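Backbone shapes recur. Consider a single case.
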Amino acid sequence: MFFDKDPLGFYSVDIKYEGSTKATQYCIDDFMKLLYGSRKIIDMTILTYGEYHALMLCFENDDYIVFIKSGLTSGYMGEGPKGTSLIIRLAEEAGITIKELNTTPSLFKRINTSLATSKDVQFIKKNRKDSFNYNRLCLKLVNKEYLQRAKESFSKNKNVIFVRDENEKTKETVELDRARAIKLLEKIDEKMDKICENTNKPGALAVLGDISSIVSTLKGFLGL
């Protein structure tokens, strides 16, 4: 007779997903946040399908796994391969054991769609190789200087890494958000001028209500 020894799932593997299939930069950002986070990464498996790569990160806690989705690439010169090289060199410097597994399309898809299972994790651990294709995955231009620039940039701003292009969408979004904040502040100044002019008039309370609404919106927008 079959007995479910863990009916509430308290002892299941906690699987998280980071990165993006569409942007190497998000893979770099999320890896660095994990690398310098509170949990220590002990090993990293490079999951390879052709020129695409995902990552499986194992931590000191055996019940915690993070997959970085396959925004990493290799086999040519470009941002994808540079990102792959950067992550590998950061992992090497941190003393993280690096392994590799050539995987199937079905497993790759489960990782990219956030549907990997505990059985997938066990399969990867059992079949991964104790080495990886260093010459293919590590570009020479990602040297110590490149690595240092990445770390210095990360320490200054944990949301924007130096390899991000100035014209990238996220940079444009920051500029648009800043403009929006300035407009809100200008509205506050205008409302304050009206209060000074209409302090003793019945509409003053309505103006104060408008200001309160604007301030609340601004605080929410800035995360205050």
